[in-house]
Amino acid sequence: MEHFLADDGERIHLRISGQGRPLVLLHGWTSTHRDWTPFMPALEAGCRVFRWDARGHGGHAPRSAAVPTVARMARDLHNLIRHYGLQDVAIAGHSMGALTLWQYLRDWGEEGLSHLAFIDQSPRLLTDTGWRFGIYGDFDAHRNAIFMDELGKDLAEAVLRLAAFGNNARARDKYLENGAGIQLARQRLGALDPQPLIDCWASLTAADYRDVLQTITLPSFLVYGDESNFYSVDTARHVAGQIAGSRLQLYAGQDHAPHLGERERFIRELSAFLGLCGAAAGRP
């Protein structure tokens, strides 16, 4: 993989491919740039695509002691854009990637950006008596503290259970069946260094971007699964209602990764949103 140096000396690893307008893709917590691989044949036809392994992710040995907070990742994104001299940049973020993008907008604004895409995320993960649009609609600071303790004991199992025992019954059934897919996910997660990911989660759950949504003026595309493990359809509609002129697409029967569940539809709709006529046919 290629890499660039962030302003604290950390290496940020990424893959760059394709020709055309710049498109930066931001993956979710505990994931890697590989999440976007299925979309590359289509997106590379019209975009120069940047896919990173976010700081603390991808199994890369750290060079610094910096904690991979969402603010630090947003700064890394700013460093990426400046390092490669990008202008008129489109950015799509899934889950943690959406939080990173909201943090970027808070810290650096919209200058140099053109289009924004947010996939299945709430601007505030934790719930309280005045906010029910977070995880499960019922995941307060106490529940998060319990989850953080579980992460410290067995990160892989805690992450799998977080996805399994939420709002998607099929995810729960798959976890309880303990089939090959769950076993492979457990193996992958078990190979990760847990502490950077735990520190990252602490940052993500401390964040609150509700105030950022109404400041967004760029064209924005929102994709949510209507059977998301974590977020209700009401969450999706709330976020869309806070971002003026945004386009919301609900993917029926899809979970927290609706873009992976309906790859051809996502490619078709994202390409149309970005004006990529050559890719809009929806190759997987």
UniProtKB/TrEMBL annotation:
<dbReference type="GO" id="GO:0016787">
    <property type="term" value="F:hydrolase activity"/>
</dbReference>
<dbReference type="InterPro" id="IPR050266">
    <property type="entry name" value="AB_hydrolase_sf"/>
</dbReference>
<feature type="domain" description="AB hydrolase-1">
    <location>
        <begin position="23"/>
        <end position="268"/>
    </location>
</feature>
<dbReference type="InterPro" id="IPR029058">
    <property type="entry name" value="AB_hydrolase_fold"/>
</dbReference>
<dbReference type="InterPro" id="IPR000073">
    <property type="entry name" value="AB_hydrolase_1"/>
</dbReference>
<protein>
    <submittedName>
        <fullName>Alpha/beta hydrolase</fullName>
    </submittedName>
</protein>
<keyword id="KW-0378">Hydrolase</keyword>
<dbReference type="Pfam" id="PF12697">
    <property type="entry name" value="Abhydrolase_6"/>
</dbReference>
<dbReference type="GO" id="GO:0016020">
    <property type="term" value="C:membrane"/>
</dbReference>
